[in-house]
Amino acid sequence: MLKEKLRRVFAAGWKNFRRNRYVSIGTTGVMSLVLLLFLCLVGVNFLGSVLVQNLEGKVDVRLYLKNEATDDEVKTIRTELEALNSVKYVDFVSREQALAEFKERHANDALIQQSLSELPDNPLQAWLNIKATDATQYASIVGFLEASRMRSVIDKINYYDNEAVIGRIQGISHAVQNWGMIGTLLLAFISVLVAFNTVRLTIYNQKQEIEIQRLVGASNWYIRAPYMIEGVLYGGFATAIALVLFFGGLQFASPKVAVLMPGVSLMGYFAGNVVQIIGMTLFAGIALGVVSSLVAIRRFLNV
Amino acid sequence: MIELNNVSTVYDDDFVALHGVSLAINPGEFVSIVGPAGAGKSTLLRLLTRELRPTEGVVTVDGVDLSHIPDDDVPLLRRKIGTVFQDFKLLSNRNAFENVGYAMEVAGATEDEIAEDVPKALDIVGLGDKRNNFPHQLSGGEKQRLAIARALIHRPRIILADEPTGNLDMVNSHDVIQLLLKINALGTTVLLVTHNRDIVNTVNRRVVTMETGRIVRDQTQHGKYII
């Protein structure tokens, strides 16, 4: 009996969907746009996080060491720094490496090469490159170094030169993250409202049908269930349409984004997470359809 | 079988639709309820399908106080009472067969039972050849006959007909009333709410006249339309 009831509920949901063709197409269309917007928001958030990562990746602090610093002293500073939780990693560049890199970088500049060869000694200093786990940690790391017993072997910390730039990058990162989050939530909220009201209007059109079903003795669940199935169908079809449009658009947008942000592949990101993306969109679509249907129908079911 | 005992109904806007109405209807009776608009006729029928609860008084069907039926059991009550309305109240996206079959479905009938009973009901009301037609493909009279077939399908002991001829021409009205009389002859209690003087006079059965929420006249036999 339960099997028969379920079959009837599914058949009724599908029949409603099919026979109210224009309304179904309209509702599915609006929900597709909502899901498309949702997918675009995922894409924009991804680009935002890449932007933040790139910006933060450019920030580091360089510690120039005095020429008389011994290997042991360098090792001590390095070990102490690496012991800090706020430090991600520390790279050491010796004077010789610094010179080699400098020469390589200016290999095509004859004047610089000639000047270097005329100098009696290596003019460059050894340095430690410090990468923090978070850009906000640089001030405390520098504070730690200033108070360190090894301060005497440190010639210069470039944080002071870059402090303003680091602060600005932090500001941009935070703005991208915060505004991205606020924008996403706002748009998600608006789109949920649009989808919800579209389904609500669709069901409102069926108000009389629901009244009739009640009058011939249908239980509330027997009335409600086909509308839930209709909600699932709206969500399911809308997901399919949104995904096709989105991945189609991605083919076009991904190369353009790669030009603006070298090394970033939107298509790669979405293709790499395709199962999660489809699952998430399908879940959002179906949940939106079913919950909207349930809420919308509730007010017509008062006996 | 149907009993209203000192029933009053006041709507949310303080409109008093029924005012201390008492009425007893025996099994198998054909009762015409007449009266001007706003007399409380439809309210009386809505009490019997538990669309409304009385503000005061008791409404019983087969000895069961309808106010005490839990909400979840209201569908069971409605499956025992057939209803026919002026505006037909047919499911627009279901064809004739499905409209009648739906009433059986909700009561838990099997596909075989539906396949057997629905064509019979459609034949009784003369729509055997229109089983695949949707409501918009039927005339007013056919729609009302379909609504009667749906009301009949449970073999209910009571049929409530609220202005069933209100949207029909004379010929179709006559057909519908003959159908209701036939159903009544088989033992079903029929409550007919109507404005149509000719119909009431032709039926020539019990006539209850209502005015401003009160019963002002109850002609138990050979009743005539008198307002």
Order of helices and strands of chain B: EEEHEEHEHHHEHEHEE
Number of H- or I-type helical stretches of chain A:
11
Total strands of chain B: the figure is 10
The largest β sheet of chain A comes out as: 4 strands, antiparallel
Content-based structural category of chain B: alpha/beta
Distance between the termini of chain A: 25 Å
Most extensive interface: A-B, 21 and 28 residues
Uncertain parts of chain B? none
Taking all residues together, what is the mean pLDDT of chain B? Answer: 92
Envelope shape of chain B = globular
- Major β-sheet of chain B, in short? 6 strands, mixed
Number of DSSP helical runs of chain B: 7
The percentage of residues in β strands of chain A lies in 5-15%
The main sheet of chain B orders its strands as 6-7-8-3-9-10
| Arrangement of strands in the largest sheet of chain A | 2-3-1-4
Radius of gyration of chain B: 17 Å
What best-fitting shape of chain A do the alpha-carbon axes yield?
elongated
Our Rg estimate of chain A from Cα atoms comes to 31 Å
